[in-house]
Amino acid sequence: MSGLASGDESPWLPPYELDSIRSKVPMVYVEAIPIRLSPTGALEDVGMLLRASHNGELQRAFVSGRVLYQETVREALVRHLDKDLGPVAMPRLPAVLTPFTVAEYFPTPGYGFHDPRQHAVALVYAIPVDGDPAPSDDALDFSWIPVEDCKNPLWELDMVPGHAALLAHLLTISGSNL
Amino acid sequence: MSGLASGDESPWLPPYELDSIRSKVPMVYVEAIPIRLSPTGALEDVGMLLRASHNGELQRAFVSGRVLYQETVREALVRHLDKDLGPVAMPRLPAVLTPFTVAEYFPTPGYGFHDPRQHAVALVYAIPVDGDPAPSDDALDFSWIPVEDCKNPLWELDMVPGHAALLAHLLTISGSNL
Amino acid sequence: MSGLASGDESPWLPPYELDSIRSKVPMVYVEAIPIRLSPTGALEDVGMLLRASHNGELQRAFVSGRVLYQETVREALVRHLDKDLGPVAMPRLPAVLTPFTVAEYFPTPGYGFHDPRQHAVALVYAIPVDGDPAPSDDALDFSWIPVEDCKNPLWELDMVPGHAALLAHLLTISGSNL
Amino acid sequence: MSGLASGDESPWLPPYELDSIRSKVPMVYVEAIPIRLSPTGALEDVGMLLRASHNGELQRAFVSGRVLYQETVREALVRHLDKDLGPVAMPRLPAVLTPFTVAEYFPTPGYGFHDPRQHAVALVYAIPVDGDPAPSDDALDFSWIPVEDCKNPLWELDMVPGHAALLAHLLTISGSNL
């Protein structure tokens, strides 16, 4: 925790307090699309987690989580990659932390992406992963999806709202859907 | 307010409540550097506000403010530009809202940029301004600084922590300090 | 011509010589997608030129042309915008000339985008246009296409190879196809 | 060579012909700054080649070279990294080939960066390197320079024109000079 001086309180909040705050201000999020590249950098596979959603449905999702009080964006990325992909995933963080896009999630249907829990503003990154991701925490599975299969618009049906659009964005800027 | 359905509460919070939240989660901010360009797009002038800081000192600053609950990043940018530069500034917002950098402000000295009030994560933009900015709200003055003068490192002494670095960043990526 | 000292030869080349060079090295190109934005920066219209292709078919295209010897990228952008859109188009060039993408055109079918004339590497920009473009030079027509209509994949049939992909790229990064 | 169909001529040109072309059109270049990152992605070291310049002086430089006819930008990056850093350097190419900046070199002093040989437009990348670079080809030495030492403006004296500015640009966008 970069900025956490001794004497400061924990950045973790009890659930009732976090729920209250979530109804009052937007949350800062980081999101990471795990990727595998060829030796020359071509996008080969995209990593997806399988999670149980709030209403019990299974959904595909990328790494995603909030930035804690006094935590840097880089620390939050490292922490969520470690938490979601396990200790031997070996993610490769970038030197430059300008996100490739900013994703906005709103609790009210009909605006931006939908997240029933909160209004969140997410900095989104594509992160090469060298090791072996293992689903941890609340994820049920982790799969590498070949980039050819990622172009199938049916993925959208199975994905957390917004994440199919982030995937399409990545395919576009990497030239993978030409 | 894009996502504010009828029946939702106001996104404005009483000061004591905002102060409490500011000690528990990072705030989402937008920051805008007002710029004037030549007909061929060369950076000519940078706009700076003059504000009284919390301890009464005068400080130069760019447009800056938080994103409200249920407000989009674009709406927040428009609102803060309008509030800080007045109704006839005619800012030109970009089609693509990927920021040129992300600035992190921490209340604890020694980490990132310093903001005694809060931990903030700011999306930073350079915004061409066509009209006549008039200092409004809590600003005392607005000045256009020729880009040649912006290179003087003495600006740093007068600027809100972090904003001199944002200015240096803009001069670098626009090729203005070559 | 920034770098053209007195005594240097003209950057213009006779056609036979340019044709010969085009078969030996890649050409440096700039490409500009003319756009119109709402007062808050949302993408509203995309400008397209109508040209007769080499085999006489009509094709939609964006502004495109080569960078001359001793000409800066910025000068080339200004020159081609002026040549293709006329003197009262009032394009708004950006302060930062990092392109949103790099497009590669090859004379050999099956690799990247196809351009039978040459191998070209193009720096691609989206340029807001405030005035009234008038087709000039070798263009037959100029039209503003509402962004809603741009999503129709049928455009691809009418467009210069590669330009439909550039349009899709712009719609993606501006969030216009969400 | 992606686009090189059988029957096409070699993309290599005899020196007299390349010299002639270099006086008539800008050359397409790729440039790569080799970098080493901490496990969390912080910039730790920058790699520099030592070369003998045309007039016999020793100069520091990054990886740099032209894109051949019918060669993709990605292929050119791979080829020049391999040629300059040797076969066990293990460079990590990015999925997205949008450069972090475009550098322009002119043969006429006083415009952009200076290159007495040619007018070149270079796509510039920062490339993480995992292995052991060995100076090859025309380089005399390769060194990793700690990022702290890179901030010393004296580097500029020893570097190829323009490369000190590219280094300063990278330090700025990675937050390394805060």
What does this structure look like?
4 copies of one chain form a homotetramer. With 178 residues, chain A is α+β, with helices and mostly antiparallel strands. Chain A has a single domain, classed as Nucleoside Triphosphate Pyrophosphohydrolase, CATH 3.90.79. Chain A has helices at 15-22, 73-85, 147-150, 155-158, 163-173, and strands spanning 27-37, 43-52, 58-61, 63-66, 101-106, 113-114, 120-128, 139-146. In chain A, strands 1, 2, 3, 4, 5, 6, 7 and 8 form an 8-stranded mixed sheet that branches. Mean pLDDT of chain A is 90; it is low at 3-8. The A-D interface holds A 35, 37, 40-43, 74-75, 78, 92-98, 100, 126, 128, 170, 173-176 and D 35, 37, 40-43, 74-75, 78, 92-98, 100, 126, 128, 170, 173-176.
Keywords:
globular; Nucleoside Triphosphate Pyrophosphohydrolase; homotetramer; 178 residues
Nutshell version of this structure?
Four copies of one chain form a homotetramer. Helix content of chain A is 22%, strand content 30%.
Strand content of chain A: 25-35%
Count of the separate structural domains of chain A: 1
H/I helix tally of chain A: 5
Can you say what the CATH homologous superfamily of chain A is? Answer: Nucleoside Triphosphate Pyrophosphohydrolase
The CATH architecture classification of chain A is Alpha-Beta Complex
Structural class based on helices, strands and sheet pairing of chain A? alpha+beta
